[in-house]
Amino acid sequence: NKVSNTHSNTLQPSYDLKSVHFYHSLLCLCAQVNFVACQLFALLMAVWFRIYLHPSKTSPFIRHVVATLLGFYLALFCFGWYSLHFLVQSGLSYSVMVFAGLENMHKYCFIVTLGYLILCQITRVYVFDYGMYSADFTGPMMVITQKITSMAFEIHDGKNKYGQLTPSQKYLAISRMPSLLEYLSYNCNFMGILAGPTCSYNDYKAFIEGTCYQPRHQENANGKENGKYKQTEPSPKNDVISKLCTCAISLAIYLSLYKLLPVERSIDDDFVNSTPFHLQVVYLYLAMLALRPKYYFVWTLADAINNAAGFGFNGYNKDGSPRWDLISNLRILDIEFATSFKLFLDNWNIQTALWLKRVCYERCPINPTAATFLLSAMWHGVYPGYYLTFLTGIGMTMAARAVRHNIRPYFLVSDSYKGIYDVITWAWTQVAISYTVAPFVLLAVGPSLKFYRSWYFGLHLLCLLVVLALPVKSKRRQAKEQQDDLQKDNQTDHNSTDNNCNQKEKTT
User: Fold this and answer.
1) Segment Disordered: which positions (predicted)?
2) Which of 161, 253, 290, 392 has a C-alpha 20 to 30 A away from that of 333?
3) Does residue 247 sit within a domain?
4) Alpha-carbon distance 467 to 398, whole Å?
5) Which residues are catalytic?
6) Helix, strand, coil share (%) of the chain residues, nearest 5
């Protein structure tokens, strides 16, 4: 009896652990199936919305109501009563916009919206479901946070008549406070409630009112790209079909590879001790390459849904074909063949990068690069791996900027030299991205530091040496110096003109 009791006590925890793991895996699978099913339903509703609720057939009020109700239905189906957090977050932020003073409204709204998101993330991660990749309710809240904060800054820019705005800020500025229905429709419409992408309020309003095909961008002032083509309302059918094919290919690749190449294997002791370092580098690159199609699938499907509803038109190409990439979130080929850290980030999660640029980088007076990476880490969540990734990203960005500024000009003397430079920088970019993003996938502190220790923190030290050896001026400082030089030149020209005038007066 003593032996049997000991044996049963030994096996019981393992059995319970397997049961819990199976239960969590089943929940994750159900959540993912629900997400895909809801997105396919949204795709069908988008086609119906474009055909039967066309702006020529119904009013903007009806389109706002239907888009909002369908969005709430999808949220309720996927997340249950957790979807009430979407309303709470939106309601608190709208109250701040209405009752706070215009001068600081955007700052208060930013703090309240981001603070509520972080509170929900802390509760979900450390109370309910640590380390699980389930389709949690904070995912849509991240997109809603982008939309709310963008709108707050755009309202502030629209009312700030005496402020100095960039051309982009002038284009995005909102001149009238949106109604509650317009606000909820913008935040929670069925096309973007589950996976985004974010967009500007002015673009969404133009889509609802049916004016999105009218040229409002400066480069499309005549409604055409090269003066030869003009269409009143192009069809998104070809682009939607193309993006759905991309989704199918991405999903097939992801399901085929993600279990064969787990990132966690890169920190396995047997793997690290028995595998040469150069093969570890290759394995890490392949493991990250196998993960990316999941994001390609989600973001491309979300883009196709918006296009199917008629949202996302962005002018015409040189051959007259319509472009439907206004709110696209990625450019796959530019990602896979990026030759610099910046190019990779510019083509990955594009709308989030634009949001970070508009609300932080362009407005932060002190070290905007570090502030932007920190905000990105806070927005993504509270896992320590996120912060390790984005802190590493700061060093990578500075080192890549220094290399590009100091070394790249020497390789531009001929096409062959530039080709060699592109191949080398492509390889380094892929390694640097994989190294930087590993903690983002591993999540916890222990595995992330174990991974970096297995690489002896090599790229961290290399970035530090590059930054110290190849200093480079920030873009803001360069722009300021160029502006100062231009002002000096203008002042010199002005003084020269005055002297010439004085000499003429004396001669006369």
Assistant:
1) 478-508
2) 392
3) yes
4) 7
5) 349, 380
6) 75, 0, 25
